[in-house]
From TrEMBL, chain A:
Cofactor(s) the protein needs: FAD
InterPro entries: FAD/NAD-bd_sf, FAD/NAD-binding_dom, FAD/NAD-linked_Rdtase_dimer_sf, GSHR/TRXR-like, Pyr_nucl-diS_OxRdtase_dimer, Thioredoxin/glutathione_Rdtase
Signal peptide region: none
Stated name of the protein: thioredoxin-disulfide reductase (NADPH)
Keyword Disulfide bond: yes
Keywords: Disulfide bond, FAD, Flavoprotein, NADP, Oxidoreductase, Redox-active center, Selenocysteine
Gene: TXNRD2
E.C. number: 1.8.1.9
Class of enzymatic activity (EC top level): oxidoreductase
Keyword NADP: yes
Protein family: Belongs to the class-I pyridine nucleotide-disulfide oxidoreductase family.
PANTHER family membership: GLUTATHIONE REDUCTASE, THIOREDOXIN-DISULFIDE REDUCTASE
FAD/NAD(P)-binding domain boundaries: 27-279
From TrEMBL, chain B:
Full protein name: Thioredoxin reductase 3
Lineage, top ranks: Eukaryota, Metazoa, Chordata, Craniata, Vertebrata
Length: 426, 431
């Protein structure tokens, strides 16, 4: 859906390049939703086929523990099966959280689980949350032409570099997304005309306010799927605060032959590729004679907001906390993607910074890139960082012209110098 | 002149003192040029001596040619406090193109505006660094002297201690009757008044492929004229004959060295390019930092990444498979590859077995990645970071240990499993 939204922007750019496109271009939610749903279904089908090809038995049942080696399965119809195994892997993931103290939250609000399956356009939407899920959803909803508001309790993208997080939301705000910061929802009710009324409180003033929306989307975090598993029957320990399963470096739980991977695990990044790799490596260790463990440090990631944010390694704050400001050098630049020039797109938030150690050869601690195709740009540099790249080595890499990525080896203005980091193209 | 180290508190106090007294000063941060002991190693003396010799000539440096390389060199020299001049003159193409003026539908206008603003930026950034820019054609008349001729034919003479020749290249013509009158080159394409219509592109270089690809996508409107082209096959007796509106020659470029007066000063030229065999726009950047970091270092031309911006882009860094086999011997290499399906192509129903990725690893050196190739959207953006990683010694193991960013095309490199030698099927069935 992010791609659908991006295309809307590109269609607008197209007329500057000589394409005689009629304005305005309407967007058909149903057509997009159907296409996305079909794609997801085909992915699921693809997985089923692969499992079948490899002779893996697939049961569509809800499992829970009876004891250490035994699992009880319950079908949709209520039929029970008992299965036993030598090794058991828990990979139940997480589900979106509903706010428990907000009246009408469950009844009238939806989550990211639902947004991709709506048959009708969600219309004017309030997204509650400041996570990447919240911002990505708000981003594509606004991108396909819907009136979108984001309500957050405090800061956006907690855990990410905060300077970058501000640029992300600044960009979204400049593109028509309304932000209600420092606000918490109190209740949701349905009006006579079928629309939803949301009442919230602004922390700073203590005042209450309300608004009318067609849809309310909760994106306030995720809870691990551990409750229905009867983990105590197997003796598997969880973290009481997060409810996530505690594992060691080999992904083993408190019971040696029971493992857990993915979002359900305590202290792991909640990302698809990490879960995939953890699963593969675990299987290789158990049955393939391998001893290779997962490496969870410097995991690159990208937030697919309207202006994408790719990052790997430490945030600036984290680097300063660990090494002290005097030992950290940050190189940065405001650049303008070539694709933005002809259509005269605003590039105020297109920004890159590389956080390094100050002492030569200036080891790169973190890279932060805000701009188009951030994921593609970041992937290769993440590998460089894994190779122990220094600022010198990155600087010596010849740029590919014209790209946004070449602005990374071109970084030469330090924050410390106080000089204007705006770089001109070409 | 203050010779300082950026982290030294005493140096900082001196700078503050001078600032507070309103005294103008220049700073050379010895740690930034990688020579904290410049005063002991003799480098400082060399730098000082260079400054005093400059008065024998009009300039410390004259750069002939105001393209990427020339501008980069000029600006960097100016940062070091040198008196620099850039002689820049575009000899019009046979069709009179100066690369800036004409309108050609909305697109051409927009592109031209952009190029114009770039040129303005170049000039103002030269001005900021006090580099003298002269729109004249430069040629040598004696060892340290050049003659500069402007559009009106007026001549001026300048001397300098050093010279940099950065005159680049221009597209080559066929050397056949009618080629200059009737054919255009990439110099002319983006300033044509009219759409080129049905076009024949002659050549197979990246310039040719990029232009051909671009033209296929274009809306056709207007007819400039008709050209009949007769061509003979290079492998037989076949002749091809057809009528086109435009013939675009992209058969290579030749260096602009013939009329520089190089023979007057004894500079030998090879009949091919001016200097390096790599003709890309970005080589200048490492030279900037080379100069800063370690005086006297040369540019590293190995592992230069590049991208061909054809409709489906091709990015690469390091060895082509053929070259790698030549240098390392096929048995010492392992090639990992895969077809892949970009997410944006799925819903749009584009083919799932078109995009391709491969790496060439040196088995004798820890499976070091010596060749990186990707054929898919945004190939340039993807290749850039991997080029940096290759410079840092990327191996297959490191790729395998790295987590991919999902969903991207670039992540395919973190999960390459199938080798060419295995002969296994790499076609895609799903996510």
């Amino acid at each position: 859906m992010h791609q659908a939204a991006l295309l809307g922007g590109l269609i607008q750019d197209a007329s500057h390049y000589g394409w005689e496109v009629a304005h305005p271009i309407p967007h058909n939610w149903q057509k997009m939703a159907e296409a996305v749903q079909n794609h997801v279904k085909s992915l699921n089908w693809g997985h089923r086929v692969q499992l079948h090809d490899r002779k893996v038995k697939y049961f569509n049942i809800k499992a829970s523990f009876v004891n250490e080696h035994t699992v009880r399965g319950l079908t949709k119809a209520g039929k029970e099966t008992l299965l036993s195994a030598e090794h058991i892997v828990i990979a139940t993931g997480g589900r979106p959280k509903y706010p428990v103290h907000v009246d009408g939250a469950l009844e009238y609000g939806i989550t990211s689980d639902d947004i991709f399956w709506l048959k009708e356009s969600p219309g004017k939407t309030l997204v509650v949350g400041a996570s990447y899920v919240a911002l990505e959803c708000a981003g594509f909803l606004s991108g396909v032409g819907l009136d979108t508001t984001v309500m957050m309790r405090s800061i956006p993208l907690r855990g990410f570099d905060q300077q970058m997080a501000s640029l992300v939301t600044e960009h979204m705000a400049s593109h028509g997304i309304e932000f209600l910061q420092g606000c918490t929802p109190l209740r949701v009710g349905r009006l006579l005309d079928g629309r939803l009324q949301v009442t919230w409180q602004e922390h700073a003033s203590g005042k209450e306010d309300s608004g009318t929306f067609d849809t309310v989307l909760w994106a306030i975090g995720r809870v691990p799927e551990t409750r229905g598993l009867n983990l105590e029957k197997a003796g598997v320990r969880i973290n009481p605060d997060s409810q996530k399963i505690v594992v060691n470096a080999k992904e083993a739980t408190s019971i040696p032959h029971i493992y857990a991977i993915g979002d359900v695990v305590e202290g792991r990044p909640e990302l698809t590729p990490t879960a995939i790799m953890a699963g593969k490596l675990l299987a290789r260790r158990l049955f393939g004679g391998s001893s290779a463990l997962m490496e969870y440090d410097s995991v690159p990631t990208t937030v697919f907001t309207p202006l994408e944010y790719g990052c790997v390694g430490l945030s600036e704050e984290e680097a300063i906390t660990r090494h002290g400001q005097e030992h950290v050098e940050v190189y940065h630049s405001h650049y303008k993607p070539l694709e933005f020039t002809v259509p005269a797109r605003e590039a105020a938030q297109c920004y890159i910074k590389m956080v390094c150690l100050r002492e030569p050869p200036q080891l790169v601690l973190g890279l932060h890139f805000l701009g188009p195709n951030a994921g593609e740009v970041t992937q290769g540099f993440a590998l460089g960082i894994k190779c122990g790249a220094s600022y010198e080595q990155i600087r010596r890499t010849v740029g590919i012209h014209p790209t946004c990525a070449e602005e990374v080896p071109r970084l030469h203005i330090s924050k410390r110098s106080g000089l204007d980091p705006t770089v001109t193209g070409c | 002149m203050i010779f300082s180290k950026s982290y030294c508190p005493h140096s900082a106090r001196v700078k503050e003192l001078f600032s507070s007294l309103g005294v103008a000063f220049n700073i050379l941060e010895l740690d930034k040029i990688g020579c904290v002991h410049a005063h002991q190693s003799g480098l400082l003396q060399t730098l000082l001596e260079e400054k005093s010799h400059a008065s024998a000539y009009d300039y410390d440096l004259i750069v002939i040619g105001g393209g990427s390389g020339g501008l980069s060199c000029a600006k960097e020299a100016a940062i070091w406090g040198k008196k620099v001049m850039v002689l820049d003159f575009v000899v019009p193409s046979p069709h009179g193109t100066f690369w800036v003026k004409h309108n050609w539908e909305t697109m051409i206008e927009a592109i031209q505006k952009h190029i114009g603003s770039l040129n303005w930026h170049y000039k103002s950034s030269l001005r900021e660094k006090a580099v003298t820019y002269v729109n004249s054609y430069g040629e040598f008349v004696a060892d340290h002297k050049i003659k500069a001729t402007n559009k009106k034919g007026q001549e001026a003479y300048f001397t300098a201690a050093n010279f940099v020749i950065a005159t680049g290249e221009r597209p080559r013509y066929l050397g056949l009757p009618g080629d200059k009158e009737y054919c255009i080159t990439s110099d002319d394409l983006f300033s044509l008044r009219h759409s080129p219509g049905k076009t024949l592109v002659v050549g197979a270089s990246y310039v040719a492929l990029e232009c051909a690809g671009f033209l296929i996508q274009q809306l056709e409107s207007g007819s400039p004229g008709k050209l009949k082209v007769v061509a003979k096959s290079t492998e037989g007796r076949e002749t091809i004959e057809d009528i086109y509106n435009t013939v675009l020659l992209a058969i290579g470029r030749e260096s602009c060295t013939r009329k520089l007066g190089l023979e007057k000063i004894g500079v030998k030229i090879n009949e091919s390019d001016i200097a390096a065999s790599i003709m890309l726009c970005s080589i200048r950047f490492p030279q900037e930092s080379e100069l800063k970091a370690t005086v006297g270092a040369t540019c590293d031309y190995v592992n230069v990444p590049t991208t061909v911006f054809t409709p489906l882009e091709y990015g690469c860094c390091g060895y082509a498979e053929e070259k790698a086999a030549e240098v390392y011997s096929k048995k010492n290499l392992e090639v990992y590859h895969t077809l892949f399906w970009p997410l944006e192509w799925t819903v749009a129903d584009r083919d799932n077995n078109t995009c391709y990725a491969k790496i060439i690893c040196n088995r004798l050196d820890n499976d070091r990645v010596i060749g990186f190739h990707i054929f898919g959207p945004n190939a340039g953006e993807i290749t850039q970071g991997f080029a940096a990683a290759m410079k840092c010694g990327l191996t297959k193991q490191l790729l395998d240990n790295t987590i991919g960013i999902h969903p991207t095309c670039g992540e395919v490199f973190t999960s390459l499993e199938i080798t060419k030698s295995s002969g296994l099927d790499i076609s895609q069935k799903g996510c």
